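I am writing to request your help with a piece of structural work I have in hand. I am sending you one protein, given as its amino acid sequence and as whole-number tokens for its backbone shapes. Kindly check, if you would, that the fold set down in the tokens agrees with what the sequence suggests. You will find the record immediately after this paragraph:
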Amino acid sequence: MHSREEKMEAFGRLLDVLDQLREKCPWDKKQTNESLRPNTIEETFELCDALLKDDRKNICKELGDVLMHVLFYSRIGQETEDFDIADVCNQQADKLIFRHPHIYHPSQVGVKNPRPLPYGENGEATEFQNAKTATEVLQNWEQIKLKEKDGNRSVLAGVPTSLPSLIKAYRIQDKARNVGFDWENKQDVWKKVREELGELEEELRKEDKEKSTRELGDFLFSVINAARLYKLNPDNALEYTNKKFIRRFNYIEEHSIKAGRPLTEMSLEEMDKLWNEAKVEEKKKNIK
């Protein structure tokens, strides 16, 4: 691995490359925050794909693409004289220091401390528990965010509205948990899941589409809640299933092409047989 000096040199080299591109490349010169945003979303999802596959080589590559976007937005901020990459780094470091009092400010833990803090309202009194577990750290984190200058003024305000619904539901529940709004016993969540499923089935029998849609949302929210309580990531779980379905359906389609028969001409029984063959092949190859 590289030394700290080599890492700083590499970071500086990337900054130099970006500066040159911004000044000399016609494409880079015309980019704005708005024009870069769709590319940033795409690069983020490509990184997520690499992470799901645990593809170390591509994780490194995609991290570079995401980092390039962070630097690009910082360069645009520099040009408008609003901020630069140093402000981005310093603000993040200050925030992390302030949100980890058990590491950087042990004198704040469990006492009222009127001294000026490195981040947030000067002289604001703090009462945070001495976090010894990851759960306690997260609980402190949410409490501290509410006390920060320019921070979130409500617990759920920090959940981006543009998050995909499944991830947003998980984050909403997780943030509520960090301030104590959660099931005391995780096993109790299954009663709620069954209750929501029953209400969904009832509305489906009535063929009320609007109410069925709302009850479906309640049911999905309760299942996501169960996943969270059992420390399972529902987004990752669903993506694994998506990939598995695609893999097995492609197997069916490939065999239909070899047989010279369109999928539309195959019976459900024939497709089920190929589906089960795909499962057997996956097991042989130890594909999960």
The radius of gyration is 25 Å. The first helix runs from residue 4 to 24.
